[in-house]
Automatic annotation (TrEMBL):
PROSITE patterns referenced in this protein's UniProt entry, alphabetically: ABC_TRANSPORTER_1, ABC_TRANSPORTER_2
Protein name (Swiss-Prot/TrEMBL): Protein TRIGALACTOSYLDIACYLGLYCEROL 3, chloroplastic isoform X1
GO MF annotation: an example: ATP hydrolysis activity
Keywords, ordered alphabetically: ATP-binding, Nucleotide-binding, Transport
Record SMART domains: AAA
Encoding gene (name): LOC105033411
Species assigned in the record: Elaeis guineensis var. tenera
Lineage: Eukaryota, Viridiplantae, Streptophyta, Embryophyta, Tracheophyta
Entry-linked Gene3D superfamilies: P-loop containing nucleotide triphosphate hydrolases
Superkingdom assignment: Eukaryota
Domain ABC transporter: start-end pairs: 105-363
Length: 372
C-alpha cells in the first residue's frame, strides 16, 4: 500500500501552532531527490526546511505523515508513531467470505481512545470498489479519527482494519502492503483557517509533484509534464510557477486535489486508489464548494475530468458537514455518533429517515437526542 498525504500536517499536531513552515524533518535527505539528472529547483536549505516526507528504519524508506510533530496528549500514548515500522508487519490474509472481493477497506469493531477519552467505540463499515461514501456526524465525534485509522496513520486500540481482505497490523508502511493506494487529503489545519495547506515556499509545480520528486524514478521533465496534466484535469493551467500565496482559496484547494490524484504512470501495475477527503469544502462559498464537489466527482472512476478522460480514483470517502457536499459528492452515508456508526443509508435517505439522531442533525434542531 502506498500512503501519501496531500497535506503535510494536522495529524496529532499541536493544533494551535500547526503550520507548514513549522515542519519537522525526520531522517536523512530524501533518496527520491538523489541521483537525478537535474537537481530540483529548490535550494538544499529549503529542502531541509520543507521536505520531510519520509522516515528511515534499517535502510527501509517509510512514507509517513511527513511533517507531523510527535506529541503526547495528556497522559495518553503518542498521538502518532508513524515512524515505528515494527508495527507494520505480520499481515494476515483473511478469507474472502461471502463474495466480499469488492471490499477495498473494512473497519471492524474499531476502538480508539486518546488518553482517557474514548472516541471510537466499535466502528464497523466497508468501503467497496467504486463507492463514493460520506462520513457525517456531530463535531468531535471522531470522523477525522476514522479517516486516519483507515489511512493507517493511527492504529486502533481494539478492532481490525482490512485492506482488500488483508488485515493490517499497526500502522502503514509503503512496502509491506500492496494492492491499494490510500491517500488522505487534508484541507485544513484544525482551528487554524489555512486552506489546502500547501507548502508555502514551494511553487505549485513542486507542491503537486511532491510525491513524485520524493518517491519515483521519474525525471524532472516527466514530472513537470504530469503536473501540468493533473493541473489541467482540475481546471488549472499556467499556474505551475506560482506560489500558494498567489492563488485564491478555491485555487489552492484545486491544487491540493491535483496533488492528491497525481501518480507515477511509469509503473507497470497501477493499483486502485482510495482517496479520503477531510472537509474538502469547509470555508468555501457555495459556488467554490460546487466546483470542488464536482471535481471530486470528476476524479472518481465513474466521472470524467476536464478533458473527458475517466477519473482515476476507484473509491473515495468524504468527511463533511456541508449539505451541498453530501448531496453533490456522495452516494452513501455513514453517520457517526458517540463512537459508533448509528445509521447508514443512501444520500437521498438522509432527509427522509425516521432515525431521530439523523433527523435532528439533518434539520439542525436543538431538540432531540444530540445534546450540545
Ligand atoms: N491526536 C489526538 N490526541 C488527542 N485527542 C485527539 C487527537 N485527535 C483527535 N482528538 C480528539 O478526538 C475527538 C474527535 O476528533 P476528530 O477530529 O476525529 O472529530 P471530528 O468528528 O472529525 O470533529 P469535527 O467535525 O469537529 O472536525 C476530539 O475531541 C479531538 O479533540
Amino acid at each position: 500500500m502506498f500512503i501519501y498525504l496531500s497535506q503535510p500536517s494536522d495529524l496529532g499536531t499541536d493544533m494551535s501552532s500547526s503550520t507548514v513552515s513549522g515542519a519537522n524533518l525526520w531522517g536523512p535527505p530524501s533518496a527520491g531527490l538523489q541521483g537525478r539528472s537535474k537537481p530540483l529547483p529548490l535550494s538544499s536549505s529549503i529542502r531541509r526546511r520543507r521536505w520531510g516526507g519520509s522516515c528511515w528504519d534499517g535502510g527501509r524508506k517509510i512514507l509517513c505523515a511527513s511533517t507531523v510533530r510527535l506529541r503526547n496528549w495528556g497522559d495518553g500514548p503518542p498521538a502518532l508513531d508513524t515512524c515505528n515500522s515494527s508495527i507494520s508487519k505480520n499481515l494476515g490474509v483473511r478469507k474472502d467470505v461471502g463474495g466480499e472481493s469488492d471490499v477495498l477497506i473494512e473497519c471492524k469493531d474499531v476502538h480508539k481512545a486518546f488518553g482517557d477519552k474514548q472516541i471510537l467505540r466499535g466502528v464497523s463499515f466497508k468501503i467497496r470498489h467504486g463507492e463514493a461514501v460520506g462520513i457525517i456526524g456531530p463535531s468531535g465525534t471522531g470522523k477525522s479519527t476514522v479517516l486516519k485509522v483507515m489511512a493507517g496513520l493511527l492504529a486502533p486500540d481494539k478492532g481490525e482494519v482490512f485492506i482488500r481482505g488483508r488485515k493490517r497490523h499497526g500502522l502503514v508502511s509503503d512496502e509491506e502492503i500492496s494492492g491499494l493506494r490510500i491517500g488522505l487529503v487534508l484541507f485544513f489545519f484544525k482551528k487554524v483557517f489555512q486552506s489546502a495547506a500547501l507548502f508555502d515556499s514551494l511553487t505549485v509545480r513542486e507542491n503537486v509533484g511532491f510525491q513524485l520528486y520524493e518517491n519515483s524514478k521519474m525525471s524532472q521533465d516527466q514530472i513537470a509534464e504530469l503536473v501540468a496534466e493533473n493541473l489541467a484535469a482540475v481546471g488549472l493551467k499556467g499556474v505551475e510557477d506560482r506560489l500558494p500565496s498567489e492563488l485564491s482559496g478555491g485555487m489552492k484547494k484545486r491544487v491540493a486535489l491535483a496533488r492528491s490524484i497525481i501518480f507515477d504512470n511509469t509503473k507497470e501495475v497501477v493499483e486502485p486508489e482510495v482517496l479520503l477527503y477531510d472537509e474538502p469544502t469547509a470555508g468555501l462559498d457555495p459556488i467554490a464548494s460546487t466546483v470542488v464537489e464536482d471535481l471530486i466527482r470528476s476524479m472518481h472512476m465513474k466521472g470524467e475530468d476536464a478533458h473527458g478522460k475517466p477519473g482515476k480514483i476507484t473509491s473515495y470517502v468524504v468527511v463533511t458537514h456541508q449539505h451541498s457536499t453530501i448531496k453533490r459528492a456522495v452516494d452513501r452515508l455513514l453517520f457517526l455518533y458517540e463512537g459508533r456508526i448509528v445509521w447508514e443509508g443512501m444520500t437521498h435517505e438522509f432527509t427522509t429517515t425516521t432515525n431521530p439522531i439523523v433527523r435532528q442533525f439533518a434539520s439542525g434542531s436543538l431538540d432531540g437526542p444530540i445534546k450540545y
